[in-house]
Every structure is written in C-alpha cells, then in structure tokens.
Design a protein that fits this description.
The structure is a homodimer.
Chain A lengths: L6 E12 L7 H15 L3 E7 L2 H11 L5 E4 L10 E4 L3 E8 L19 E9 L2 E9 L12 H18 L5 E7 L7 H10 L2 E2 H4 L2 E3 L29 E7 L2 E10 L17 E9 L14 H47 L9 H54 L2
Parallel strand pairs in A: 1-2, 7-8, 10-12
Antiparallel strand pairs in A: 1-13, 2-4, 3-4, 5-6, 6-7, 8-11, 9-11, 12-13
Cofactor (chains A, B): Mg(2+)
Protein name (chains A, B): Sphingomyelin phosphodiesterase 2
Pathway (chains A, B): Lipid metabolism; sphingolipid metabolism; Sphingolipid metabolism
C-alpha cells in the first residue's frame, strides 16, 4: 500500500551564456534570470555557462530567500560554468572532469579553458534520495566537419559511466544540461541507452514552447541565423533527463521559453530554458523495482560510438606525429645554428650584417617552434592515451553486453 | 541461516618500479614478478608503476593461463602505471584522474606526466559483487618540506569521495595501492575515516614480513638509505584496505616480501609486496547490515585536511601571481624592442654589431619567458580553482558531518 502523496518537483535548466566581456547584455540578462527564478520559485535550477563567479555571487545573493542552498563547481581556467540553486539542502557534491575537452590552441573556441565537467549533487527531498547531475559538453562548431565529435563521444561515455557508477544508492536520478547533441546523435543514444535515462521532452504529458522542444531557435535574437539555416525550427541540445530507481518518475509538464523574456525586449540567453514538472512517487510493492533489460540495439550504439573514438584516435596519432616531427626539426635547426655560431665566434664581425639578424631571428623562431611543438606533442600523447583507454573500456562494455544478451 | 561457505581471497599488491631506461634491472624484475605471480596463483594482483605497456603485455602473455582477465588503465603521457591481473572476469572498469598531480616543470619528479589516477574494476566472484580500486598517489620527495602535500591531500580526498560515490551497489570494497602516505598521515586518516575502509595490516590475525608492515625498507638494495635514515625500520606506504557492505570481511593473514626474492640476489622492486588473505562471508540475517556511525574525530581530520588545502591554495596563488607578473614584464620588453626595432629600421646598419646580437638574444629570451610564464599562469590558475573547489567541498562535508553528529 502506498500512502505517501506523490512529490511534485519543478526543475529549471538553462545555458545562461554569461561570458564576461563577450556575451551580449550579460548583466541585464543575469538580472532577468535572477528575477524570474525568484518569482517562479522552482525547486531546483540547474545553470550552465555562468563563467564569472561574480555573476554566481550576484544570483546567490538575490536568490537566498527562495533558494537557500546553492553550489558552484570550480574547474578549468575560468570555472566550469556549472551551478545549482536549490530549495532543498545539498548533502554532498562531487565533480568529474572529462578527460578530453578540445584543444588549448583553439583559442577561438575556448572549450578547453572551461574544464568541462559533470557535477553531482546529493539531495534528500521529503525522504527521497536524489542524485542530481549538471553538465555541459563540448560545443559543436561545424556539424558537417565536426572535429570535436570524438571528444564529445568520449564525454558522453564518461558521463554515462559516471552516472551509472555513482547512482547506485539513489532513489531518483536527474540530469540537466547543455549536451550539445541533437536527440538522434550517437552520444545521446549512448548516454540514454547505457544509463536508462528518459527524456523529459519525449515522455511529457503536456508540452508548451518552441516547436519540437528546440532550445536553440532562430527566433532568439542572440542565435546565429547562419548556423541554424539547415534547421528552420532550431535544434534541441538542452535536456532534462531522469530515471527512478526505487521510485517512479514521470514528467507531467514540460515548458521551454520562446525567445524574449515576458514583457522584455531581450531573451534570457541565446539558449531557451527547459522547465520540467516531475511527479515522483514510491513504487508500489506489487510493482517491485524495475529490472532493466538490455536492448540489443545498444550493442550497435556502443559500436558506433567506438568507431567515432577510433576516428579520433587516428587524428590524434597524426597530430602527435606531426608535432613530434616538427619538434625534432626545430631542435636540429637549433643545434646546427649553435654549431655555426660556435665555429664563427672568432670571425664574428662578418661583412654582412643581414645574415646575423636573420640568424638570430631564425633561432628565435626555432626555439618557439621547439617549445610549442613539444608541448603539443605531450598534449596529443595524452589525447591518444585517453582515446585508447576509452576504446578499450567500450570493448569491455560490449563484451559484457553481449554476455548479458547471450544469457537472456 | 548462512549456508554459503566463506570465500577466501588472496590479494597481491606491489609497486613494481618499472620505469623504462630508469629503473634498475627492470626486465629481470618484471620476469621475476611474472614467475612469482604465476607460481603463487593469487586471485587478484594489483600492480602500480608498470609504466611501459610492453611490460604489461609481457606479463599478460605470461600470466594468461593463471590470470585470464587483466586490465591496464591508460592515462597521462606515459600511462597511469596501474594494472590488474585477475582469476575472475572483469565486468566493467572506470578511471578517475586526480585533478591535481604535481607540476609539469618538475621534470626530475615526473609525477605530472604519469596522470595519477584511481582505477575501478567491477567483478563478481562467487556471486559477490566486488568493487576493486587500484591507485598510486603523488610521491613524497621531502618529508620535512613537502611541497606536494596539498596535492596529495586533494588526491586522498578525491579518492575517498570517488570510493564513497561509486561503491554504493557493491558487496565488498577493496583498495590496493601505493598511497605514498605513512599510516598516521592526514591523508590516510581522511581516506579511512571518510570511507570506513579498514587497514589489512591493522586488522590481520597473522602477520609475517617486514617489521611494522613496512614496504619501503633499508634492507631492500634499491631503496635510498639516505632518505630512509629517519626511519630505521623503513616506512609503510603500500596498503590493502577493505570494507564489507552486505558481506563481512576480515584479513586472516598478511605477508610482505622482505628484500630479495626467494633464491635470488635481487628484490622484485624497490617496494615490498603486500599479500593479504581475506575471508569474505555473507552477514547473517541477525547481524544485519553494519550501520556506520560517524566518529566525532572525523571532523578534526577533515579540518586538518582543509588547512593543508588552504596552505596549498596560498602557495598556488603566489605562483600564479609571480608567473603573471613575469609574463607581463616579458610582453612589455618585447613591445619595447619591437618599437625600437621599428624606429631604427632606417638606420639599421649601426656601427656596433654587438648590440644587434644582444638585442636579438634578448628578444629570444623575452619570447621564451612570455610563452613559458603564460603557460604556467594558466596552469596555476587551474590549480587555484581546483584547490578552492576542494576546500568548498570539504566545507560542505564538514557541515553535513556536524549535522549528522548533532542529530545523533
């Protein structure tokens, strides 16, 4: 018999696009987000891209009455951008930084500097143990030729594994964030297939908001119309996912914002917010705990992901090789110059002043090339190791999956 | 009623000291280790410092009959050095890289390049779910003035948190590795207090081996006698720790090797191996699951660890500041030189050849300093973020601890 009334939980998720000096109208928008969160009084607000801790502190101060508990996950050079505001106490937190996250020399993209990660918060709400995850995966800058796809697949795999390994004791698992993947992308299928998480948009009873649940829409004045050209309705890359373990969870209602904030001329962010009303109730004894069966399609999904990782591995090996070669060439040039310098020390005052200058300039160039290529060689070696490690983990997972399917 | 006979598990742990080109008699010792593992037929062998994958493959080939299952954890530039050989199937693996692990410019120590991590293996042995962890923490190079203590404390905290968050579904938790901490060090007390792991050496019924269970002993011909001078018996830094959740675990027997390998003139490694015989049995229904009570001393331990993290934070902030200043100075010098160069372009053929050469040399130096200090500034900024994040996590943990103690 189940006497507990179901728990209604309102969860808010938004990529806030709050990069200091770069995001348009940042302060106004942070103000608007704070006002809205304060008015709406959600149970839980999961935010991404709050890069400046000052913005977080401003929000915290404004929201302390309505959301007395909050946490900012620090990582990378400028912070992970992940933070959470909650009506309920946060009992514990844990951060997992993705092992691969773009390249430090891609300054125009800058993902590497953010230390992309997944944050875990442990909370008890009316006696129910929630494991809440908030994350932000590597951005997709060019869908046709996505150089970051292997890194994003590794991140999706690590996210799935992190959730699987850390959620065993939970009653309910909740994940919110900007996954930078379309609903049918291999990373999402891998994440959902591996963890059994359900998509609030696909499961909801009532939906209101942008068509197809899109969260990056052309109607938003901050989005790039050019990038969204192949997708006239926009794309859905921000998600609220969940699963119940000892409890049963369903999404009663899902809402996205649609461009401008109510009564204002600007939107909250370049992304639309996702707001889910979840209904959580204890499983009746007759229902028992849901035993997850392995879907045979999952084997194909893991294989597909593994292929992407292998593609990334070949690219990383090529990069490592060309950086290593460059470092060796620069070193040889420097040695040659040192030899020439030493041999001509006696007759240094040559008649041609230009060679001396170009000689020094060449030495300067060779030194810079040597330093930079050595650093990049080390970086790509780490990348190779991590891709090999992930590939091996996936191989093991496939084996375990096939054993499970064989014994069914 | 408990009809299952208890499970006896023989676990082997060794830091193999197998660094290519650097460790003495590496190949002979790897051969010896392989022979011994093969003869002894342990259930589980947890190895550290197997840096070369070639050595791992050699061991794997030799041991395949006796240990059909094995895993090598890849990370860092030269691999994590962590590997496991097992008689029982490995169902899943997961790797957590510590967020801090020394400095890349400390080439003589080299820990940064190893990507120190903790590896998790999920195994089912006679129906009992084991979560086996293998790890290796940052080395201690100078106990009196240990610059790496804050990093090691962060690693111990992350290890404790990783074990706590990933072991909820396990029946038995097992951790083996070189923790580079003496038994009374703050990191060990934090790890044991936070996770409830028990020390095989402290709990065993029979012990045989080096006095006080030491694993780095002066009798070993590869250890540095000078470093061990303050500890005539040696030090104990390699551990097998365990806890039973649904099962009861005790250590029946613990053995360490003592210097040279039997019948040989050399030891297996510069560390002594630790071999535990564990007895695992299902808790009787009357016994129930052991409910862990929080020890009030744990508050002091977390506070002590937090102080160490704060000390590290101050040092990291100082380093970041001085590297930032250095980068700005180098940039100013380069700008000044560019200005001088431009202004004297017309009258370049000055009468003094030396200034031109030193001018170029100075530009070279400034460029190198600018590149290196910028990279270090970024590195120390990440370090500051991670130390701040850990300090905040510890603050939250303390609060939760105090709430728990208050409600007891």
């Amino acid at each position: 018999m189940n006497l507990d009334p179901p728990l209604q939980l309102r969860v808010f998720d938004l990529n806030c696009w709050a990069i200091r000096y770069m995001s348009k109208l940042r302060q106004e928008r942070i103000g608007l987000i704070g006002d809205m969160l304060s008015q709406e009084g959600f149970d839980l607000a999961l935010l991404q891209e709050v890069w400046s801790e000052r913005d977080y502190c401003e929000l915290k101060q404004k929201l302390v009455a309505c959301y007395p508990h909050s946490h900012y996950f620090k990582s990378g050079v400028i912070g992970s951008g992940l933070c959470v505001f909650s009506r309920y106490p946060i009992l514990d937190t844990f951060l997992y930084q993705y092992s691969l996250n773009g390249y430090p020399y891609m300054l125009q993209h800058g993902d590497w500097f953010c230390g992309k990660a997944v944050g875990l918060l442990v909370m008890k709400i009316r006696g129910i143990l929630f494991h809440v995850y908030v994350t932000h995966l590597h951005a997709e800058y060019c869908r046709e030729k996505d150089a970051y796809l292997p890194h994003r697949v590794v991140q999706a795999w690590e996210l799935a594994q992190f959730i699987q390994h850390t959620s065993k004791g939970a009653d309910v698992v909740l994940l919110g964030g900007d996954l930078n993947m379309h609903p049918k992308d291999v990373g999402i299928r891998l994440l959902r297939g591996w963890t059994g998480l359900r998509d609030a948009f696909a499961d909801t009873e009532h939906f209101e908001g942008c068509e197809d649940g899109c969260t990056l829409v052309p109607a938003n004045c901050f989005t790039s119309k050019e990038e969204l050209q192949p997708f006239p309705l926009g794309i859905r890359i921000d998600y609220i996912l969940y699963k119940g373990l000892s409890h049963f969870v369903k999404c009663d209602n899902l809402v996205t914002t649609t461009g401008t904030a109510p009564g204002k001329s600007i939107p909250y962010s370049d992304h639309e917010a996702v707001i889910a009303t979840l209904c959580v109730k204890r499983r009746g004894e007759a229902e028992g705990a849901r035993i997850r069966t392995v879907e045979p399609e999952l084997v194909d999904v893991v294989n597909e992901a593994r292929t992407e990782v292998r593609v990334g591995l070949h690219a990383a090996e090529r990069q490592r090789y060309s950086n290593g070669r460059m470092a060796i060439l620069a070193l040889l040039l420097l040695l040659l110059q040192a030899l020439m310098g030493l041999s001509s020390l006696a007759g240094w005052d040559s008649q041609h002043p230009f060679p001396k200058f170009s000689f020094s300039l060449l030495a300067l160039l060779a030194t810079v090339v040597l330093l930079v290529s050595t650093a990049l060689y080390i970086f790509h070696t780490i990348e190779v190791k991590m891709l090999q490690g992930t590939e091996e983990q996936m191989r093991l997972a496939l084996q375990a999956l096939q054993d499970q399917l064989g014994s069914m």
